[in-house]
């Protein structure tokens, strides 16, 4: 008997939510292709000499000598609990008191954000984000819903007056209220701004008044040049804040260590969906590294190094950028956000990479990408002070001579 073969249509196997998500731009589309030996002012990577490679190698050796094969099983190493304890103590020091049941270790902040999106969002859910914002978080939210609302940022962070207006208007019109607000209040990516304490209080008051959650992404929160502002989580007496932390920017991004601090009920739901999709070996290695690390000293070194690099970048911008260009002066973190009126920064990037310097065009950080055409993000974290100065000079030359 002849079998009747049905031609496979791969598309038909996807449910509607996945089909819709696949209509969006592919993940990571914003990463520029940069020739080797370019000065890389686009990467949000830590400075190579501040990544503790030697110490991590020693930690791996120590871990395997002490625990043999244990850390190589699914959740074998007792140091997995040690890492959670370390995170809990660090949260304590920063005024965010957590029980173990209120913490979940994740594969970086990104997994934490994705899990949060997974348990709180469906296609009808509304999310509010800052504009501009961290593009990977935008990509994540767009996989779950297209109901994303934006509130602009100024030098003092999220414009809370505008948030208040938006919420009041939606309530009046009977529209769906947001499930959560996603914010990077401290040393923001990409703008480098920090939300004032007054605005932080207002965010928490609005969350209470309009009954939404606040997803606080604190990836850069310990990288202040002079001090680190109080987190929203530490100011939250009503359990509104889902706090996301990360060791990527202060230890090593490739280790993929992040965490969520939230109420026990929320952590339980996140845990349900995370299963064991993580890296127990990386967690045990990180715990061993941290046992041997003076973390406060480490933070001090990072902040001194990044502050100097930032100063070099700001001085070079003053010297080499056209007079109509402007930028926010960051008090920590990795980034300077620049506005150059009349310059399309995507076109600028292709000329700049030809001259051996890269940055990220601003458009990628906006939901509506036409808004970001005259902005660019520069990162001072990765390159040496000398290269930063050279890179900005090259950029200035490209703007003046080639556009
Ligand atoms: C605001 C923000 N959140 C999260 C992350 C990613 O953190 P992780 O490496 O822990 O996933 C980044 C990295 O660039 C970031 O800028």
SSE map:
Blueprint: H1 16-21, E1 39-40, H2 53-67, H3 79-93, E2 103-106, H4 108-120, E3 127-131, H5 135-144, E4 148-154, E5 157-158, H6 160-173, E6 180-183, H7 197-210, E7 213-217, H8 232-235, E8 241-246, E9 258-261, H9 264-274, H10 280-291, H11 295-320, E10 326-327, E11 335-339, H12 345-354, E12 357-358, E13 360-361, E14 375-379, H13 385-402
Parallel strand pairs: 1-12, 3-4, 3-6, 6-7, 7-8
Antiparallel strand pairs: 2-9, 4-5, 8-9, 10-11, 11-14, 13-14
The structure holds pyridoxal-5'-phosphate (PLP).
Low-pLDDT residue spans: none
Largest sheet: 8 strands, mixed
Sheet with most strands: strand arrangement: 2-9-8-7-6-3-4-5
Q: Average pLDDT value?
A: 95
Description:
By secondary structure, the protein is an alpha/beta fold. The chain has two domains: 31-51 and 297-402, Aspartate Aminotransferase, domain 1, CATH 3.90.1150; 53-291, 3-Layer(aba) Sandwich (Aspartate Aminotransferase, domain 2). Helices cover 42% and strands 14% of the residues. The protein is built from 13 helices and 14 strands. It has helices at 16-21, 53-67, 79-93, 108-120, 135-144, 160-173, 197-210, 232-235, 264-274, 280-291, 295-320, 345-354, 385-402; strands at residues 39-40, 103-106, 127-131, 148-154, 157-158, 180-183, 213-217, 241-246, 258-261, 326-327, 335-339, 357-358, 360-361, 375-379. The strands form three sheets. Strands 2-9-8-7-6-3-4-5 form an eight-stranded mixed β-sheet, with helices on both faces. Helix 3 packs across helix 10 (280-291) and helix 6 (160-173) packs parallel to helix 7 (197-210). The longest helix is centred in the last third of the chain and has 26 residues, at 295-320. It is globular and about 60 Å long.
């Amino acid at each position: 008997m002849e079998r009747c073969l049905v031609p496979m249509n791969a598309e038909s196997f996807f449910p509607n939510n996945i089909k819709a998500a696949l209509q969006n731009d592919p993940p990571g589309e914003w990463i520029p292709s940069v020739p080797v030996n370019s000065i890389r002012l686009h990467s949000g990577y830590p400075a190579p000499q501040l990544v503790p490679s030697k110490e991590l190698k020693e930690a791996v050796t120590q871990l395997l000598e002490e625990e043999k094969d244990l850390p190589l099983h699914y959740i074998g190493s007792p140091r997995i609990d040690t890492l959670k304890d370390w995170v809990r103590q660090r949260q304590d020091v920063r005024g965010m008191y957590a029980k173990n049941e209120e913490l979940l270790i994740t594969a970086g902040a990104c997994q934490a954000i994705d899990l949060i999106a997974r348990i709180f969002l469906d296609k009808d859910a509304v999310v509010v984000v800052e504009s501009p914002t961290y593009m990977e978080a935008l990509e994540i939210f767009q996989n779950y819903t297209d109901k994303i609302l934006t509130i602009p940022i100024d030098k003092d962070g999220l414009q809370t007056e505008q948030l208040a207006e938006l919420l009041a208007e939606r309530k009046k019109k009977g529209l769906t209220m947001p499930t959560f607000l996603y914010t990077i209040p401290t040393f923001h990516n990409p703008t480098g701004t920090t939300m004032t304490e007054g605005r932080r209080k207002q965010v928490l008051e609005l969350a209470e008044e309009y009954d939404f959650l606040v997803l606080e992404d604190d990836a850069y929160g310990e990288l202040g040049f002079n001090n680190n502002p109080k987190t929203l989580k530490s100011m939250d007496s009503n359990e509104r804040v889902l706090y996301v932390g990360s060791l990527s920017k202060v230890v090593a991004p490739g280790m993929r260590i992040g965490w969520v601090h939230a109420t026990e009920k929320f952590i339980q739901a996140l845990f349900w969906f995370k299963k064991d999709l993580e890296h127990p070996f990386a967690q045990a290695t990180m715990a061993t590294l941290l046992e041997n690390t003076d973390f406060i000293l480490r933070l001090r070194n990072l902040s001194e190094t990044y502050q100097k690099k930032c100063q070099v970048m700001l001085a070079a911008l003053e010297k080499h950028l056209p007079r109509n260009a402007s930028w926010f002066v960051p008090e920590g973190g990795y980034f300077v956000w620049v506005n150059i009126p009349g310059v399309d920064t995507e076109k600028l990037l292709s000329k700049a990479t030809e001259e051996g310097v890269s940055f990220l065009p601003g458009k990628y950080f906006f939901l509506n990408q036409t808004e970001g055409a005259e902005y660019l993000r520069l990162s001072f974290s990765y390159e040496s002070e000398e290269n930063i100065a050279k890179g900005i000079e090259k950029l200035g030359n490209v703007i003046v001579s080639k556009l």
